[in-house]
Design goal:
The protein is an alpha/beta fold and 317 residues long. Helices cover 40% and strands 15% of the residues. It has twelve helices and eleven strands. A nine-stranded parallel β-sheet has the order 9-8-7-6-3-2-1-11-10. β7, α7 and β8 form a beta-alpha-beta unit. α1 packs parallel to α2, α3 runs parallel beside α6 and α8 packs across α9. The longest helix is centred in the middle third of the chain and has 25 residues. It starts with a strand and ends with a strand.
Length: 317
């Protein structure tokens, strides 16, 4: 089994890389500075960089919720903002030109989730001008969509509108396809991957199997008992927020999973790692789930990922 680590000590990358290599790590996601990359490769590891898909800069289009209010989520803006999209493309191209990298992993290539630190209302997006225009291009009435998403939020309809989920997924797919073209255009041998949501929650944020087809590496973030106050993408925080927003019965119907009682504290058992890993498998992709390094039952979680078919296992924290 191959193991990788997210993060390298920028103050002492050589010592950290040497220690990781001695412990059997074969790759690290590190800062894209020359010293860190050199430290990783000199230690015999592959160096990967991480790129924030929709990082928000001043003047970018924020997502807009069903009430017309701007919503920031995960420090990100609207995935369909065309002006920000051109800046992001240039930034990614520059990163891909960095020497010594083996690949780039995209983070945050999605729409807002229930456990957005800025609040669950961020999930009920996006109805900004760019998204509404794109909906019309695809033959979808944005005003009717807004009404249906509002009904989902209020409980008037049990499940989210299929057109809304499809819009999110197609938007993510287009973004990832464009990112891949940029990366491969710089160096065809660079691996292109992404950190993605647990499969059971993926469709809600636009990360369907079809949306992820352009990836070489799929890295589901499977943090089953994350103990920090906020935890977007973590299983316990996301399920707790979803249950709070739409109730336990609707959550189970939507995701196929009935979370444990007091899930924010109890978390999920290690077995969830196996099932989420198995569901994330796509043909001809490297499946590399990433686990929390401080998992109190880390050996069990690692074995669960391996049983689920992981090609590599990563660690965060």
């Amino acid at each position: 089994m191959r193991y990788y680590k997210f993060g390298l000590n920028v103050g002492a990358p050589e010592a950290d890389a040497h220690s990781l290599a001695e412990r059997g790590f074969s790759a690290v996601v590190c800062s894209p500075d020359a010293r860190s990359i050199r430290a990783a490769t000199d230690a015999g590891m592959r160096a990967y960089a991480c790129f924030g898909a929709f990082s928000l800069h001043e003047g970018d289009q924020e997502c807009v919720d069903v009430d017309g209010k701007p919503r920031v989520w995960f420090g990100s803006g609207c995935p369909n903002d065309p002006i920000a999209g051109r800046r992001r493309a240039n930034q990614l191209r520059s990163l891909a030109e960095t020497g010594g990298l083996s690949g780039i992993l995209i983070d945050g290539a999605r729409f807002a989730s229930p456990a957005s630190q800025e609040g669950v209302e961020s999930m009920f997006t996006c109805f900004c001008p760019a998204c509404c225009a794109k909906m019309r291009e695809w033959g979808v009435n944005p005003e009717q969509m807004r009404i249906e998403v509002s009904k989902f939020r209020s409980g008037e309809r049990a499940m989210p509108p299929e057109e809304w989920l499809a819009f999110r997924a197609q938007s993510v797919r287009e973004a990832l396809d464009a990112f891949r073209k940029i990366v491969k255009g710089v160096r065809s041998d660079l691996m292109f991957g992404a950190f993605v949501f647990p499969h059971s929650l993926g469709a809600l944020v636009g990360q369907t199997d079809e949306a992820l087809e352009s990836l070489d590496i799929i890295a589901p973030m499977l943090y089953r008992r994350y103990r920090q106050p906020h935890g977007p993408a973590t299983l316990n925080h996301e399920y707790a927020a979803l249950v709070s927003a739409i109730g336990k019965a609707r959550t189970a119907r939507l995701t196929g999973i009935e979370p444990p009682e007091n899930v924010i504290e109890a978390g999920f058992p290690p077995e969830i790692i196996e099932s989420e890993t198995r569901k994330a498998r796509l043909p001809d992709k490297i499946l590399a789930p990433i686990l929390q390094y401080d998992d109190p039952e880390l050996p069990k979680s690692i074995q669960a990922a391996i049983r689920g078919g992981a090609d590599a296992v990563g660690f965060f924290g």
